[in-house]
Design a protein that fits this description.
Radius of gyration of chain B: 14 Å
Number of strands of chain A: 11
Radius of gyration of chain A: 13 Å
Number of strands of chain B: 11
Order of helices and strands of chain B: EEEEEEEEEEE
Distance between the termini of chain A: 32 Å
Helix content of chain A: under 10%
Number of helices of chain B: 0
Structural class of chain B: mainly beta
Helix content of chain B: under 10%
Structural class of chain A: mainly beta
Largest sheet of chain B: 6 strands, mixed
Shape of chain A: globular
Oligomer: heterodimer
Mean pLDDT of chain B: 93
Largest sheet of chain A: 7 strands, mixed
Shape of chain B: globular
Number of helices of chain A: 0
Chain lengths: 112, 112
């Protein structure tokens, strides 16, 4: 089983819909992250969380919100989806003693 | 602002033809430089962390090196299965909140 699991893997939806992407991990890491990946722009950080009570905005948080339900679960919501949020979304985790982040296999989100 | 530039954008090699990928960075207080491999439809897979200038890490046909301004990923006698996009990322001081700044990647193709 994957250490970092993202659901769904693919999602197509319409403008204005509310969408939730979920991430769960079995690595036991405290730190979790949400990124989006776009061609020509690379990976950009949306939100990150150091523990259940700690949520921080990344460089592109507008239009997104997150919830850290437990140490192992971190969800990303798009309250009212718009087409320019079409992208690949990745969840990642890290141990505070080691800086390397470990990624899930992503959610491909298309907003029509 | 932290910046990471990778070159070339794409590289095509023949099997066995060694080469290097470049990652130039500008960051205030480097805490770590990371190399990842990303296959189509997958999340980035962690390869190496380098912490200080002069450090080298090796894994199979890959060797990563670090100077004060750039890192190289050397690929010795590559095989077709080394084809992937290679991403470089940096982490600055602790005030950045463990966030990574990624380059746009080098897409490597190794032909048999």
């Amino acid at each position: 089983d994957a250490d970092v699991t993202q659901t769904p893997r693919n999602r197509i939806t319409k403008t204005g819909k509310r969408i939730m992407l979920e991430c769960s991990q079995t690595k036991g890491h405290d730190r979790m992250y949400w990124y989006r990946q776009d061609p020509g722009l690379g990976l950009r950080l949306i939100y990150y969380s150091f523990d259940v009570k700690d949520i921080n905005k990344g460089e592109i948080s507008d239009g997104y919100s997150v919830s850290r339900q437990a140490q192992a679960k971190f969800s990303l919501s798009l309250e009212s989806a718009i087409p320019n949020q079409t992208a690949l979304y990745f969840c990642a985790t890290s141990d505070p003693n080691y800086f390397a982040q470990h990624f899930g296999d992503g959610t491909r989100l298309s907003i029509l | 602002e932290d910046q990471v530039t990778q070159s070339p954008e794409a590289l095509r090699l023949q099997e066995g033809e060694s080469s290097s990928l470049n990652c130039s960075y500008t960051v205030s207080g480097l805490r770590g430089l990371f190399w990842y491999r990303q296959d189509p439809g997958k999340g980035p897979e962690f390869l190496f962390t380098l912490y200080s200038a002069g450090e080298e890490k090796e894994k199979e046909r890959l060797k990563a090196t670090l100077t004060k301004k750039e890192s190289f990923l050397h690929i010795t006698a590559p095989k077709p299965e080394d084809s992937a996009t290679y991403l470089c990322a940096v982490q600055a001081g602790e005030t950045s909140g463990s966030r990574l700044t990624f380059g746009e990647g080098t897409q490597l193709t190794v032909n048999p």
